Amino acid sequence: MKNRKIIAILRGITPDEAVPITEALLEAGIDRIEVPLNSPDPFTSIKRMVDAFGQTAVIGAGTVLSPDDVQRLHRIGAGMVVSPDCNPRVIVATKQLGLQSYPGVMTPTECFTALRNGADGLKLFPGSLIGPDGLKAIKAVLPEGTETYAVGGAGPANFADWFAAGVDGFGIGSALYKPGATVDDITARAQDIVAAYDEGST
């Protein structure tokens, strides 16, 4: 599978949906999947995904706010921790347990705090407020090779603008999944997102 830096954000997914939706995303070409912890029974959903697809996908959690949550995710085999904020304690706990860390940042100060504590990449959130121009300015001072993901307001319609500003990837939430969406809905949206990503990243 092509290494696309797209993280599917499945806020509101239920355990019964977890496996069929993950399968649909993988078939469409998205292999990084996040279940926000403010979803119904998120740890059960994540564990089912890991058990079924842990060898072929990076499965993790979003809205991770405490080291205790990180430890619980590690115990069920998750591979990725995504947060809305830059909490050094969460980042350090994530890296000590060998998981990938993507904290939420908005300012240069938060970007450097995240990197100093070991973050694998930066989640620019909310992306709609930072915008491609904001990213371009911040990237001028970030260390070479810093991975950046636009989350919140990034989608196929503006992928090209973000790529032009130097973004590496995207976290896609409601443009991909909303509670009640069918597997067919998600498959169609995922295919559109992958096509736009491939076109913009070449």
Could you describe the 3D structure shown?
The chain has 202 residues and is an alpha/beta fold. It has one domain (6-201): TIM Barrel, CATH 3.20.20. The chain is built from eight helices and nine strands. Strands 5-4-3-2-1-9-8-7-6 form a nine-stranded parallel β-sheet.
Describe this structure in a few short sentences.
By secondary structure, the protein is of the alpha/beta class. Helix content is 46%, strand content 17%.
- Tell me which CATH architecture applies here: Alpha-Beta Barrel
Q: What's the tally of helices?
A: 8
Helix and strand element order: EHEHEHEHEEHEHEHEH
Q: What structural class do you assign from the helix and strand content? A: alpha/beta
What would CATH call the homologous superfamily?
A: Aldolase class I
Shape: globular
Instruction: Kindly report the average pLDDT value.
Output: 97
Strands across the major sheet, in which order?
5-4-3-2-1-9-8-7-6
Main β-sheet: number of strands, strand sense, barrel status? Answer: 9 strands, parallel
Distance between the termini: 16 Å
The CATH topology, please? TIM Barrel
Provide the domain count: 1
Highest-level CATH class? Alpha Beta
Computed over alpha carbons, the radius of gyration is 16 Å
Question: Helix coverage percent of residues?
Answer: 40-55%
